[in-house]
Amino acid sequence: MPASLELSLDRRLPEAVEAAGYFVAGEALTNAVKHAHARRVQVKATCQQQRLTITISDNGIGGATTAAGSGLRGLGERVEALGGRLSVSSPDTRGTTIRAELPCE
Asked: What is the CATH number of the domain that holds 32?
């Protein structure tokens, strides 16, 4: 599946933040292939104003929720444990966007 990656990071982040970002991106990419039947995916990561924002969007079938499976629910818990938040937008037939925001001070 074609994927694009856009990074705007000017330094290494705390290890726990990097690990959480890795797991968010990994789970979102896995879900895009395994469940969403996406044909393309886009990953963006930026760190501005002491916040890391990771956005993963696909053009799959949508319908993902944090309540549906343990993967997204677990990501939400991992992100929240670091003082961040995870959101999922996944309207039926219109793809999925997962956005994680984490403090990166």
From this structure: 3.30.565.10
